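user: can you give me the structure for this one chain? tokens are fine.
assistant: on it. calling the predictor now.
[tool input]
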Amino acid sequence: MIEALACGTPVIAYRQGSVPEIIENGVAGFIVADSDAAVAAVKKIGTIDRQTCRKQFERHFSDQRMARDYVSIYQRLVQKPPSAIAIEDGVLSWTDLVPNATT
């Protein structure tokens, strides 16, 4: 699907797996429920703009976007996780955790 969008090709696919996350129905193709809907979608494929398909790809799956997302994930993974609070540290009060909270 991603390769099709990169080429500006609209996609017709069943609503399974990552399809709803990748294809914006009616914008970059059609998400269908059965073969009859797929046949109907083929007849409407001319309503999908190929440049819009390519723009969808660039917005969500370009190498810069993917690299930026991976770096963000890696940065979160290497950050030191918060340390646990021991019982000896005392009882927490929600007002200590939330600024301007009232009980």
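assistant: here you go. Residues 2-78 form one domain. The beta strands are 11-14, 29-32.
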